[in-house]
């Protein structure tokens, strides 16, 4: 049976009532119906409608064309919609206020003087206390490791966890192509990442990759897995060449990293902790270097199994030259200085 718009709306409403998020609903539809599935913006629009109390999935009747009169009431209404949702679209405004696209454009650009821009992602809306904690930690690290020139830097190993997907779409930039003047512009079907995913933990030092550990049949990291499977494998790899090598571990403040069980494990094995300020992925090498760099290489590839996806991740990691790892650590300490210069911003 060919599904129509109302069938998809019914599925969206069902998922909404089940408590699924917009992204989870979109991922499920995309995995089941592929190209025939509604776009993410459609899913988002209907979630907004249901949140406002709408229960009908039928198209609402309209008398004639949308009004095109630009009046103060409509201008103020558009202003409020934008304040409520900075991502609101033309069609959402049209549906909410029953005014034409031409009028919306006029209100936005001639009366409100707004424009749409791509936001700069920031890790967290930091408080003054958190900014101070960032600065204090950066100062301590720069002093302790002599701006990153200390030999002790070779004993630092950093790690973190991330999801690896069986399919993650290319970015818009990655899908750009050259076209001649007489050629039609190519189109691209918008696809979401797959719902099939595997959590991995990856650790490395200034000389390169140490270990990538996948969570076998576990959805999220916990202290038990971290201290009985993950860290023992990482420490074992580090100490293969030098049994009593000093290890300075850097990881973020995830609950599995800061638990009593994890602290006891590290103390027993005489592992030093480097510490990390809260909400600071910009100061974590996996977050600002390794994960985005490797995941960009995986975008657009469709893996038949999660094992294939994890193996591809490991292959790309192992192909990185030693100079890249060294550059990452150099940039890490430069980021610390930059954080201080910008007062924790």
UniProtKB/TrEMBL annotation:
GO CC terms in record: nucleus
Residue intervals of the Tc1-like transposase DDE domain: 218-307
Subcellular location: Nucleus
Annotated InterPro entries: Homeodomain-like_sf (IPR009057), Mos1_HTH (IPR041426), RNaseH_sf (IPR036397), Tc1-like_DDE_dom (IPR038717), Transposase-MT_Hybrid (IPR052709)
Matches recorded under Gene3D superfamilies: 1.10.10.1450, Ribonuclease H-like superfamily/Ribonuclease H (3.30.420.10)
Alphabetized GO MF terms: nucleic acid binding
Mos1 transposase HTH domain span: 5-53
Record-given protein name: Putative mariner transposase
Organism, scientific name: Nephila pilipes (Giant wood spider)
């Amino acid at each position: 049976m060919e599904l129509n718009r109302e069938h998809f709306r019914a599925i969206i409403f069902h998922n909404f009532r089940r408590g699924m998020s917009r992204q989870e609903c979109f991922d499920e539809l995309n995995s089941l119906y592929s190209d025939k599935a509604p776009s993410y913006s459609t899913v988002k629009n209907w979630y907004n409608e249901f949140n406002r109390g709408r229960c009908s999935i039928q198209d609402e009747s309209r008398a004639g064309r949308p009004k095109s009169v630009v009046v103060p009431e409509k201008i103020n209404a558009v202003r409020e919609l934008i304040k409520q949702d900075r991502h609101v679209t033309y069609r959402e405004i049209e549906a909410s206020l029953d005014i034409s696209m031409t009028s919306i454009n006029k209100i936005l650009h001639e009366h409100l003087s707004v424009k749409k821009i791509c936001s700069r992602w920031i890790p967290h809306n930091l408080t003054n206390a958190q900014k101070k904690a960032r600065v204090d930690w950066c100062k301590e690290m720069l002093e302790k490791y002599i701006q990153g020139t200390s030999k002790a830097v070779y004993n630092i190993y950093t790690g973190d966890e991330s999801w690896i997907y069986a399919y993650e779409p290319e970015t818009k930039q990655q899908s750009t192509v050259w076209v001649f003047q007489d050629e039609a512009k190519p189109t691209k079907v918008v696809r979401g990442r797959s719902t099939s995913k595997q959590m991995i933990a990856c650790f490395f030092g200034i000389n390169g990759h140490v270990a990538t550990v996948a969570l076998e049949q576990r959805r999220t990291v916990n202290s038990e897995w971290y201290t009985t499977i993950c860290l023992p494998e990482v420490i074992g790899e580090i100490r293969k060449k030098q049994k009593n090598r000093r290890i300075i571990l850097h990881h973020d403040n995830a609950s599995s990293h800061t638990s009593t069980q994890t602290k006891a494990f590290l103390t027993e094995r005489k592992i030093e902790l480097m510490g990390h300020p809260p909400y600071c992925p910009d100061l974590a090498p996996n977050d600002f270097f390794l994960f985005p760099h490797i995941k960009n290489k995986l975008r657009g590839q469709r893996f038949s199994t999660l094992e294939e996806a994890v193996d591809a991740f490991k292959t790309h990691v192992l192909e990185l030259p030693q100079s890249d790892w060294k550059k990452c650590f150099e940039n890490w300490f430069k980021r610390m200085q930059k954080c201080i210069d910008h007062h924790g911003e």
